[in-house]
Amino acid sequence: MPNKVSNKKILATFARLALTNLGNGYMMIAPLRKNVVEQKHWLTEERFSHLVAKAQLIPGAFSFNLSAIIGRELAGSKGAACAIAGTGVPILLLFSLLVAVFSPMRHWSLIASALNGMRPAIIGLLAATAFRVGRQSLTSPAQWLYPISIALIIGYGHLAPLYVVALTFGAGFVYGKFVKPQL
Question: Is residue 29 part of a domain?
Fold first, then answer.
């Protein structure tokens, strides 16, 4: 696999994103997309969407899966290692510092209120990211019914994730095979 991007640039990019975009792995999709697709043009929008989908299929922490897949795409195995290190090491150091500083203050009402107040903003960021990725990947109104249905099943159906994955696999197979064959 050819080195399209230097390992040093991959490490620096993922480290900066890790330090400036706190939250779960899904929170890094929008800033990572903006960085590697719009600003640096390392990936196309379509390729980025495919890599995000691929990262969701792998068990484990999504942020590390996504980092590894994009790093590998950009510079092979060493690129994957640099992306993982860039994602993990700064966060490990930052959270170690935060725990040391805020642990004594965890019962303060001001800190608890601030954390509770961030929840709606985080949900909004996740929804905006899902919409942006969906807008690129879902090209017909019928395709939008699929993720909306899955969200409702997860939100209100209280199904175990294994069943949801099995249902989505089956529905995706039927859709791809009979409704809209790609090949």
Answer: yes
pLDDT of residue 110: 85
| Residue 179 counted as domain residue | no
Residue 170 lies in a domain: no
Residue ranges making up the domain that contains 46: 7-108
How far is the C-alpha of 155 from the C-alpha of 166, rounded, in Å? 17
- Average pLDDT along the chain, 183 residues, taken 10 residues at a time: 79 91 77 93 93 87 91 94 92 83 79 80 80 78 79 78 78 78 56
In a domain, 122, yes or no: no
What pTM was estimated for this model as a whole? 0.59
